[in-house]
Amino acid sequence: MADKKQNYSADQIQVLKGLEPVRRRPGMYIGTTDVRGLHHLIWEVLDNAIDEAMAGYCDRIMVILNEDGSVTVADNGRGIPVDKHKVTGVSALETVLTVLHAGGKFGGDDSGYKVSGGLHGVGVSVVNALSTKILAEIRRDGKVYSHEYKMGVAQGDIKVTGETKSTGTSMTFWPDTKVFETVEFDTPTIITRLRQQAYLTKGVCISFEDKRKGRHEGEIAGDASYKYQFYFEGGVKSYVDHLNLNKDAVCDVIYIEYEVPEAKIEIALQYSQTYNENIITFANNIHTLEGGMHLTGFKSALTRSLNNYARSKSFLKEKDLNMTNEDVREGLTAVISVKLADPQFEGQTKSKLGNPEIRKAVETVFNEKLSEYLEENPNDGKLIIAKGMLASRARLASRAARDTVLRKGALEGMTLPGKLADCTSRDPKNSELYIVEGDSAGGSAKQGRDRYTQAILPLRGKILNVEQARLDRMLGNNEIKALIIALGTGIGETFDIERLRYNRIVIMTDADVDGAHIRTLLLTLFFRYFKPLIEAGFIYIAQPPLYKVSKGKTSEYAFSDEAKDKILKDWGIEIKTEEEQAEEEDDEANEAKNKKPKKPRASIQRYKGLGEMNPDQLWETTMDPERRTMLKVSIKDAELADSVFDTLMGSEVLPRRKFIQTHAKKVKNLDI
Ligand code: 0RA
Q1: CATH 3.30.565.10 boundaries in the chain
Q2: The model scores a pTM over 0.85
């Protein structure tokens, strides 16, 4: 920054004395001089127009990126006063543009709550200080006034440049390329901001136009402009509508707007059929990411009024416990916006509202208004309480499940599942657990195994998709519970690898799509809840053969198509497709009639499932430690696998679809 300053010769720097500190240390006023700081200039001017709108004098704001790199922010408010102050001899316009933090002083009429004084409410004078030029155009009292500033200094007097019936303020500024690392504005950043401001300032139409050339795809020569317009009649209510667009709503959007001496409070909320909460809060149109007093007040009122209502309507009986904060926030989407005279921003990123009086104000208003709403809309009331009570029951069930299943020592006392055919050995080092898909394969495995070292646990059908289930539901699933008890380690907080009953856990599923699915479900379970077992190298995948190839009295197993082809080749048999083979058999029947010598023949049996193998076959191909091959599941790609599980198992449909499309060919190969 120091060298940037030196780029100016002494007479070039004619910045107004009062604004010099801004040029010396821009960071103090706009945070940074990178692209974020650059956008700060727009936010600053925009905030002033929003103030005018919030005061009720303006319903249109335009932001234009001009071809020459300047930005225009225009509104149809009252227009900044241009007449000279009797004492100072300077107009309000000039004061706003040349005196640091002057903005607020001129708003002290009936406008109430100002954005200025907030995070970036440093005043338009800062924009003036960091721009090579500003052109202010004011429409007021039937005239168009214009005043130009260079390097922060007014150029002559305010001029009347025309007549008009309308009123408003327009500011065009040229960011100083010597101050900013970049002067390239980013359209998506601006659009996001404008949309958000439009939600927060209901009834105001905010438009955007990008007149810079060569920016937009499909742009027709001579018409480089690119336009957006935001207008939300419902304000934050529309915001909640937007956030819940793709969710199943439980009730209507509840909307509350109320003014108390401390603040103007606007709240919109809606429940949807999801488990997540999404509460977005603002103070004076600034996103309070870290929450603060308004959020605290909202949360306590929500819990209190819903419990009161549930009790008064006997949804909650005397013996029932109250719903907790977490219970009543499950599936909740809410936007809270407060506007107050003197916001205090605290926290790591100065985005936490600190005013203590706001907590009580929001709590009182919201409690009263929500209770009123519930009384007037008993149907919504019933649905909301049902949702909260369901969450409450799930939480209690989850705790109960944890208490019974997870409590330390509880598993030792628990009897092993009936369908587990355990091994005789009690030494984990010598013990293996085969998790087998289906009862029939389970039966073969039980008969074919080495009883001393091999235990068999058949799983019926598909186990629960743990990725989408909560822990309590998961533990309510018999297949999973049986598996956890058989493993002996416990799960979650009580997991203890020392109690593991088998040092080899073998997943044995069919070589088809269902088998692959069950294998993935089991691997997901292990990745999410038994990672140490994978890290220790205890998890394996069995490799049953795909084919049995026989010729006369000899037969061999093939574990892949290539292996099968190789066996046939070694036996001197041509590889044919099934149709050709059928034709050939007809031919051979004819040849037999013609008494020609026979070609060598083989029979190929393809195993569609483990159940098709008899116990002996299963033993010699898949389970006999002397002959079997198994794949050890490694943690090396755990992270990758983890994300793949998320994609395939999680509830986000879009990424899953994308994944399946990208990998469609590979997936198809599984479905032989
Ligand atoms: C103070 C007084 C009045 C207007 C404004 C400020 C004002 C400032 C900005 C900044 C951007 N757009 C604006 N529009 C208006 C006028 C008070 C009156 O007319 O009585």
Answers
A1: 20-216+224-230
A2: no
